[in-house]
Design brief:
- The protein has 326 residues and is α+β, with helices and mostly antiparallel strands.
- It starts with a strand and ends with a strand.
- Strand 5 and strand 6 form a beta hairpin.
- The protein has helices at 65-82, 105-119, 126-136, 138-142, 191-201, 205-224, 228-247, 258-272, 296-304, and strands spanning 2-14, 19-21, 26-27, 31-48, 55-58, 61-62, 87-94, 148-151, 164-168, 176-182, 277-280, 287-291, 309-315, 322-325.
- Strands 1, 4, 5, 6, 7, 8, 9 and 14 form an eight-stranded mixed β-sheet that branches.
- Bound molecules: ligand DP6.
- Ligand DP6 is lined by residues 12, 15-16, 25, 31, 103, 105, 137-139, 191-192, 282-283.
Length: 326
């Protein structure tokens, strides 16, 4: 009734934004990400007969009501599947700065899905685990796998075909990914609510859906060709399209701050100097950059000089979610 798992977070190169079913958390578009080696969540779960409710500890402290509720909701799914009627104690730790607003739901819910299944004696294959993790958070479905990963949009009503699949393993292409953490206030709205808002209020949402297949096909091809220039060009285009949705929603959402813009400008300057480096930004102000291993130290140095950057991490494609102890 107890298990520990690790899952790594991921960077979406073609973004998931929008849902076609909120209840089952089915995505409106497919997405492609790279799992990140050095940013992960370790989660221990223990089902205990004596508990009167689920309890979540995040980085050593009891979590707020909202993440508690989300975790409990997810554990209800596991309980329904297994017939277990005990509540659980969940202890989750990120090895990266959570308060900075870096996406933790992907690694957090992927680790929880893997640990909860082991603890509940539910033997699922990675595809089934991905379906399960998706119900908690769309991006978590991708963190079940390592390397480059594609989330299938699926078309079945029950969501059984809306899961991630591996594109290539983490050894296929030893890219470097930099994470530039910007200082500043927390983001204004979480992605779950922001997706709903943009879907009904941005005039560009329909175009976003229409152009998604092309971005996915081009990205898949570019990854398999190890074509950094192409991967970077599609990733930046797709990232700007997603942020255009948030900026044109009503009310408008602006995830960037001044530092975010200055990092993008610095990256474009580096490119003009002949250094192949490309950026992507999730629903927050931090900037991720992809480049070759040879260029990453120089790029880190440049990004560290940008006013408002508090820290720059360097990582590379990482492994699938896994059990670490039983
Ligand atoms: C901008 O996976 O956090 O990071 O399914 O509602 O939990 P929910 O959304 P979430 O959305 C991630 C949005 C994104 C893009 C991406 O990771 O593809």
């Amino acid at each position: 009734m107890r298990a520990t798992a690790i899952a790594h977070t991921n960077l979406a190169l073609v973004k998931y934004w929008g849902k076609r079913n909120k209840e089952l958390n089915l995505p409106a578009v497919g997405s492609i990400s790279v799992t990140l080696k050095d940013l992960f969540t370790q989660t221990t779960i223990c089902f205990k007969k004596e508990l009167r409710q689920d309890v979540l500890y995040l980085n050593g402290s009891i979590a707020d009501a909202s993440p508690q509720k989300r975790v409990s909701h997810f554990l209800d799914v596991v309980r329904r599947k297994t017939g277990i009627n005990a509540y659980a104690e969940v202890k989750s730790r990120n090895n990266f700065p959570t308060a900075s607003g870096l996406a933790s739901s992907a690694s957090g819910f992927a680790a929880l899905a893997v640990a909860a299944c082991r603890a509940a004696n539910l033997d699922l294959n990675p595809t089934e685990l991905s379906v399960l993790a998706r119900q908690a958070s769309g991006s978590a479905a991708r963190s079940i796998f390592g390397g480059f990963v594609e989330m299938q949009v699926g078309n079945r009503k029950d969501g059984s075909d809306a899961h991630a699949t591996p594109v290539t393993d983490e050894k296929f292409w030893p890219l470097h990914i930099l994470v530039a953490i910007t200082s500043g206030p927390e983001k204004e709205m979480g992605s779950t609510d922001a997706m709903t808002l943009t879907a009904w209020s941005s005039p560009f949402f329909r175009k976003w859906l229409e152009t998604s297949h092309q971005d996915l096909a081009d990205m898949r091809f570019a990854i398999l060709q190890r074509n950094l220039e192409k991967v970077g060009e599609i990733a930046e285009h797709n990232c700007f399209k997603m942020h255009a949705l948030t900026m044109t929603s009503r009310p408008a959402l602006l995830y960037w701050n001044g530092t975010t813009v200055n990092i993008m400008l610095a990256i474009r300057r580096l490119r003009r100097q002949g250094i192949p480096v490309y950026f992507s930004i999730d629903a927050g102000s931090h900037v991720m950059a992809i480049c070759t291993p040879e260029a990453s130290q120089k790029i880190r140095h440049v990004l560290e000089q940008v006013d408002g950057v508090s820290r720059v991490l360097i990582t590379s494609p990482g492994p699938a979610a896994h059990i670490v102890e039983n």
